[in-house]
Amino acid sequence: MSVLDIFSRLTQQADLMDAMMDKLGVADEMRGLPDHAAVLRRAANRCLTCDRPDSCQEWLGHEINPDEAPGFCRNHDLFDRVLDQMAAETTSVA
Fold this sequence. Notes:
There is one protein chain. By secondary structure, the chain is mainly α. It has helices at 3-24, 27-31, 36-48, 53-62, 76-93. Helix 1 crosses helix 3 and helix 1 (3-24) packs parallel to helix 4 (53-62).
């Protein structure tokens, strides 16, 4: 694998993670988490070691307004906790 292949994969995985956070609507909330840089770094590391980027790309292309990340997503639990936190904040405001 060449250096360019490695950078290409890193870019693709980072783009998929950004797209997943946008699709789920958690991007802004994650950037507001305490120690968000470390949280995002760990999430990115999980994404970079995922062996299902094609499945992720397909899921992102087909889902319109998902309630949660796909079960195969290595960041499913993180995104689920953030979505739960957002729901709790919305409920407490209402």
